[in-house]
């Protein structure tokens, strides 16, 4: 799986907002805190706002804040808001693919891969990341020696 810069920046910006969820933050302060190009962040924040992940307010005390509690927003929600479905094959959803004969096993393989990604990203919330504590299931996966090996 490839995580786009857009998804990485979106999650980082959302976590920055989750640290103090009631506070409005301007894009400049979020960009500075997370070393994200501000112009790129503006478009990401618009996508997150359309998805209801962030809310915005104009004015001197304006800016962005989370649109719902951090414990109710998963990393998967953020990634989907900026990049669309978590896993596609050539731009199609895995269950919509058809393969012939020797390649028939690819369809369930791609579906299983998507389910594995969901199993991690849907079970980690912005509150988890803001508190720097991953759920035990995800922590076990990350603590595996194999997880840190490049192959």
TrEMBL record:
Q: What is this protein called?
A: Rrf2 family transcriptional regulator
What are the entry keywords? Answer: DNA-binding
Q: InterPro entries, per this entry?
A: TR_Rrf2-type_CS (IPR030489), Tscrpt_reg_Rrf2 (IPR000944), WH-like_DNA-bd_sf (IPR036388), WH_DNA-bd_sf (IPR036390)
> In the UniProt record, does the keyword DNA-binding occur?
yes
Reply yes or no: does the keyword DNA-binding apply: yes
Look up the domain of life of the source: Bacteria
């Amino acid at each position: 799986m490839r995580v786009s810069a857009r998804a990485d920046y979106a999650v980082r910006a959302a976590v920055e907002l989750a640290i103090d969820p009631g506070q409005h933050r301007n894009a400049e302060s979020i960009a500075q805190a997370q070393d994200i190009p501000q112009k790129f962040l503006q478009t990401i924040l618009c996508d997150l706002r359309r998805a209801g992940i962030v809310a915005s307010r104009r004015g001197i005390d304006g800016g962005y804040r989370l649109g719902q509690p951090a414990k109710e927003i998963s990393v998967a929600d953020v990634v989907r808001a900026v990049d669309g479905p978590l896993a596609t094959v050539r731009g199609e959803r895995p269950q919509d693919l058809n393969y012939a004969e020797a390649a028939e096993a690819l369809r369930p393989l791609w579906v299983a891969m998507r389910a594995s990604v969901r199993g991690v990203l849907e079970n980690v919330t912005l509150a988890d990341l803001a508190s720097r504590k991953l759920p035990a299931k995800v922590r076990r996966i990350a603590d595996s020696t194999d997880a840190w090996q490049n192959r």
